[in-house]
Amino acid sequence: MPLPKAELHLHIEGSLEPELAFALAARNGVPLPYASTEELRHAYSFRDLQSFLDLYYALTAVLRTEDDFHDLADAYLRRAAAQGVRHAEIFFDPQAHTSRGVPIGTVIEGLGRALDQAEHRHGVTTRLILSFLRDQSAESALATFESARPHLHRVHGVGLDSAEVGHPPAKFREVYRLAAEAGLHRVAHAGEEGPPAYITEALDELGVERVDHGLRCLEDPALVDRLAREQVPLTVCPLSNVRLRCVDTLADHPLRRMIDAGLLVTVNSDDPAYFGGYADDNFAAVREALGLDDETLRTLAANSFTASFLDEETKAARLAEVAAYTFAD
Ligand code: HPA
Ligand SMILES: [Zn+2]
Fold it and tell me: Which of 57, 160, 161, 235 should be mutated for ligand 1, with most atoms under 8 A from CB?
């Protein structure tokens, strides 16, 4: 049995495996510019975040109906459960779908139906985080939020993703203010490709409770001190960082330095269908590449529940499971 963990940084569209992409393309009569799943997998070689996002958005074309979104989320939850994930906080990008004419209700209700069944079917509790595309306008984010209002009972938080450089967090101050007013949690991608100043801005201007990625905080010792002091969770995604060339190799990954600096780091998969692994694959990869011992892995798993938006009672129960876990030799 894998180490129990929470996954806090997962884009549901990034869990679209080539086999499901082809099945949905056939179901919906959507042409794909690839002859086979092997040919599609060959396209998974990225120079940077943008080259990945181009393919990620192109493949969303196969997602059209409520059932498609349901099937996508159910497939992710099944795989996650097999990797020890007991709780998943799942990003979705409504603008990637509404821009293609798919109503936001189709997206949220389809995902929501899979999430409703997740605890019973897969033993995984869930939260849904609506993410704004930062390379689109502040007005588009506001319109997206307004159109989501009838479905907000299914949404626990808001996030910010897509191309980071040139799109500082402060651009989204107003929509984050409205989200806070609606009682939603707030997180944002910052410091993946963007500068450490974006991390500070996300904290101070958007009021985020967690920072997604946050790697580049290491360039600013005063910021590291602050993140450590305030125990701001950072949702680190090791395999993603290598595939998107934020770090050269896994052996160069700063995860251990981040732990040693007293940061509340968690390990996550980001876009597992594209980056070569789900949650436990990321744990195994850093254990191997960085020589992490069992107690460090246990700390990372405990951090994932501590940093989650679970209620305190469930959080305590999951932390007890982590503490009682016996590692196989
Ligand atoms: O890793 C990512 N970074 C930014 N935006 C994203 N959207 C999906 N994955 C990512
Ligand atoms: Zn991400």
Answer: 161
Q: So where are the chain's domains?
A: 5-319
Q: For residue 325, how far is its CA from the centre of ligand 2 (angstroms)?
A: 28
- Note the ipTM here: 0.96
Does the beta carbon of 18 lie inside 6 Å of ligand 1?
Answer: no
**Per-residue model confidence as pLDDT tens digits over 217-245:** 999 999 999 999 999 999 999 999 999 99
Residue 196: its pLDDT value, please?
98
Give the global pTM: 0.98
Alpha helices by DSSP H, listed for 35-183, are: 37-42, 49-59, 66-82, 95-98, 104-122, 138-148, 173-181
Ligand nearest to the CA of 131: 1
Residues serving a catalytic function are: 192
- CATH domain 5-319 topology: TIM Barrel (3.20.20)
Sign of the C-alpha dihedral computed for residues 316, 318, 319 and 324 taken in this order: positive
Who surrounds ion ligand 2 at CB < 5 A? 270
- Tokens read off for 55: 């393919």
Spatial contact of 92 and 56, defined as CB atoms under 8 Å apart: no
Measured from the alpha carbon of residue 15, the closest ligand is 1
